[in-house]
TrEMBL record:
Protein name from the UniProt record: ATP-dependent DNA helicase RecG
GO molecular-function term, one example from the UniProt record: helicase activity
The Schlafen AlbA-2 domain, residue ranges: 20-138
Superkingdom in the source lineage: Bacteria
PANTHER family the UniProt entry points to: GLPR-RELATED TRANSCRIPTIONAL REPRESSOR (PTHR30595), SCHLAFEN ALBA-2 DOMAIN-CONTAINING PROTEIN (PTHR30595:SF6)
Organism: Flavobacterium seoulense
Keyword ATP-binding found: yes
InterPro entries (UniProt xref): RecG_C_sf, Schlafen_AlbA_2_dom, Schlafen_AlbA_2_dom_sf
One Pfam family named in its UniProt record: HATPase_c_4
Keyword list, A-Z: ATP-binding, Helicase, Hydrolase, Nucleotide-binding
């Protein structure tokens, strides 16, 4: 049974004025269900999106307008529903809803599509991928291989490289590793047992882990570059670049630690002008380490691009090549785990003092530390071929100020809501903030008898 929801005129206008882009598409109800399965396939194989069926687009004198012309009833939409549920069954990845509006005629069918772990085909058997406002058919082996890598169905770390075995079997780092971790076996049989050597060639994972200079075998796709821009602008420019980018190379274990220490050194050397004068830049130590570690271990090594760490006056940006793997999205990334490079994640954790001490918990650690330091939470943004994580140097406003600003537009605030907004970690600590505001005559406990115990909230003093 598909739910029917009535929406307001304001919500209707938002739909009519949606931009058709990487995440949204609007179609007339006259379009064939088979054609629409191409759009659903494309969203499924990308980052997901919403499809609205029942919206006409008209053009007059070069001006495009949209109008609501929905299905007369649910029966009229049966052709769409049947093929959708056959190919894209209702569940965790797909949901369908009818939308109604009191001032409009007919039902709009909204299909909400999530990113899927598997590859999804349209009704014609072809595979599509979303790019901007287009659903592009994938036809070549290279395009399909690229989609498999994006979804994590295959991993570039398992590809073998045509380089001498000695690159990984006779390096300083492999002998150090064997002495510390596997002291009773020689490198070659151990690497073969770990499937890091195949057909007498080392894999990408073996090279990244145990070659002294992996960048010689994987140029332009395994390095890290550190930049310092003296600006708060959205983009860095040549004019604001303080020095030539610093290149960080070497096996990934040492590369991670060197990248973090270089970034910290550059930050600590700088002061920025604030309202109170020149101040040292603040940075969350653990958050920086975890985000850089995450970028190195989970990047897509098949892409010819380095990791870029860009230091601005008010933030650090870490740009990691490759889309989020598998079913991971910007929304669920703190709760879901999917390792694009499983061997790298597993084996770097065997090193002494591994950079990924708590496997799968790195980003949660980063978010928790920024909350503890009263800094703004990191922002994770999935771009077309990269993931951008932004760590702000700037502190949040005081919890008191955040609460009062929230109550300017809301009638009440609950302890859990206040903790989420302010970064205060425990309910008791949050209560202390409320009591301080109460003592100042700014807040009072909501007298509503239904707002007691766990449901209690605070309101502005009348």
């Amino acid at each position: 049974m598909i739910q029917t929801i009535e929406i307001t005129d304001e919500q209707k206008e938002k739909i009519l004025h949606l931009s058709e882009n990487h995440f949204n598409d609007l179609k007339s109800k006259d379009i064939s269900p088979a054609s629409l399965t191409k759009t659903i396939s494309a969203f499924s194989n990308s980052v997901g999106g919403d499809l609205y069926i029942g919206i006409d687009e008209n053009e007059e004198k070069g001006i495009k307008t949209r109008s609501w012309r929905g299905f007369v009833d649910e029966e009229e939409a049966n052709g769409h529903i049947q093929i959708f549920e056959q190919l894209f069954p209702i569940g965790d990845s797909y949901s369908y809803t009818f939308l109604t509006n009191p001032s409009s005629t007919g039902l709009i069918l909204q299909a909400s599509i999530k990113k899927t772990l598997h590859i999804v085909k349209a009704s014609n058997g072809s595979i599509y991928k979303r790019r901007s406002a287009q659903s592009l058919k994938l036809t070549t082996d290279a395009e399909l291989k690229r989609l498999e890598l994006d979804k994590g169905l295959s991993s570039f770390e398992d590809i073998t490289l045509n380089i001498p075995l000695e690159t990984v079997t006779d390096s300083y780092i492999i002998f150090e590793f064997m002495i510390e971790v596997v002291p009773t076996i020689e490198p070659l049989p151990w690497l073969k047992k770990q499937l890091l050597i195949r057909d007498n060639h080392p894999t990408v994972a073996a090279t990244l882990l145990y070659s002294e200079i992996p960048q010689a075998a994987l140029p332009k796709q395994s390095g890290i570059k550190v930049y310092r821009y003296k600006t708060k602008s959205d983009e860095g420019t040549r004019e604001t670049l303080v020095f030539d980018p610093i290149s960080i190379e070497g096996p990934i274990y040492t590369q991670i630690y060197e990248a973090v220490s270089t970034t910290k050194r550059v930050i600590e050397e700088e002061k920025v002008l604030r309202e109170t004068g020149l101040e040292d830049l603040q940075y969350p130590d653990k958050a920086l380490h975890e985000i850089v570690t995450n970028a190195v271990l989970h990047r897509d090594y098949s892409l010819a691009s380095d990791i870029h760490i860009r230091i601005f006056d008010n933030r650090v940006e870490v740009l990691s090549p490759g889309s989020l793997p598998g079913h991971v999205t910007e929304i669920n990334i703190l709760n879901e785990q999917f390792a694009r490079n499983g061997n790298l994640v597993r084996l770097v954790n065997k090193f002494p003092n591994p950079p990924n001490k708590d496997v799968g918990e790195g980003l949660n650690t980063a978010f928790n530390e920024t909350s503890d330091l009263r800094l703004k939470k990191p922002i994770i943004k999935e771009l077309e071929n990269a993931v951008l994580v932004t760590i702000s140097h700037e502190p949040l406003a005081s919890p008191e100020k955040i609460i009062m600003e929230y109550l300017e537009t809301n009638d009440e605030i609950h302890n859990s809501t206040a903790r989420e907004l302010t970064g205060v970690r425990t309910p008791d600590s949050m209560k202390s903030v409320f009591y301080k505001l109460q003592e100042k005559g700014l807040l009072e406990i909501n007298p509503d008898p239904t707002k007691k115990g766990r449901n209690s909230t605070w309101i502005k003093k009348k």
